[in-house]
Amino acid sequence: MTTAAIIVAAGRGTRAGGDLPKQWQDLSGKPVLAHTIAAFAGQVDRVILVIHPQDRDRAAGFGLQVVEGGATRAESVRNALDWLAGQGVTKVLIHDGARPLVSATVIAAVLRALDEAPGAAPALQVTDALWRGADGNVTGTAPRDGLWRAQTPQGFRFEAILAAHRAHPGGAADDVEVARWAGHRVTIVQGDEDNMKLTYPQDFIRAERLLRGRDMDIRLGNGYDVHAFTPGDHVWLCGVKVAHDKALLGHSDADVGMHALTDAIYGALAEGDIGVHFPPSDPQWKGAASHIFLRHAMSRVAARGYTLANCDVTLVCERPKIGPHQAAMRSALAGIMGVDMDRISVKATTSERLGFTGREEGIAALATCALVRA
Ligand code: MG
After folding, report:
1. Distance 256 CA to ligand 1 centre (A)
2. How far is the CA of 285 from the centre of ligand 1 (A)?
3. Rounded to the nearest whole angstrom, what is the distance from the C-alpha of residue 274 to the centroid of ligand 1?
4. Using one digit for the tens of pLDDT, what is the confidence trace for 127-147?
5. Whether pTM exceeds 0.90
6. Using CA atoms in the order 323, 326, 328, 330, what is the torsion angle rounded to 10 degrees?
7. Pick from 255, 254, 295: which is nearest to 277 by CA?
8. Which fold does the domain 217-373 belong to in CATH?
């Protein structure tokens, strides 16, 4: 079984404004058609592009089989079907070049439906009331029962749609109409509101917004650290000096909370941990304040185009009491990280006197963070 997609992009439609036909206009930094073609990559065995003869140079960069369109959309589709004839294609999807946001889900649903029916196409049930209007006034209503808004890709068993297009007298609104004219059943599969056809300038604005949403990347990281107690009179926790009858033993200032948080951030970026960036074997980091590590991790967040959505640090110890210092710790971390305090949580728990933290041999810290790139 071989599947093919015909992307119809031969129109000269300029209702979208601008000098170029809409399928060649820029959408989020590349032509609309580049998005449309990318949507079919890996979904079908081959992609055929139907273009206007004047667009040959523009289309060359896509590296696809190009077929020249005709005077009408139907003629353009028939040219592509004729070109594919005799090449063993069993299922063909016919798609508007100006629908760049078609999802893999919709494409797969149409292909799957062709196992049961000779034709299948996505559509959305009409849910708004329908009116007739003239001169800016409502002149009547129309029943919406059984009405659907048609989308593409419209899919067909290849030989059926090829024969139908060759025999059809012309003037059909779309390929479903051609198939039905030839007596083929066409199944409706669930369409997608985002699978919009770019027609007007405001459609480009909406499509860019949707694409930005798709590009959003969310990354989570976690960190864990432990430092042992040693004789002393204070500990550093989350950037705050806390009086205590012991100190924490460590290569730097042993701020176990800030270390866990820093590791969480490196983890979210998949950039190792503190030890990778600040090797304990390097004497220059001996006794270094932990904010140096945290600042570095945050600089990596910015360099990679992310922002910190939130972080949450849990300190595990019987003593010292963390509650009285919680706000100061959040404030200190906010200052170092350059984010609002409401994105930073510091909390504490005991381990019910169990284990090394329960025996007050040391303090453990866990941290989680979320990074977002929009
Ligand atoms: Mg540490």
Report:
1. 5
2. 12
3. 8
4. 999 999 999 999 999 999 999
5. no
6. 180
7. 295
8. 60s Ribosomal Protein L30; Chain: A; (3.30.1330)
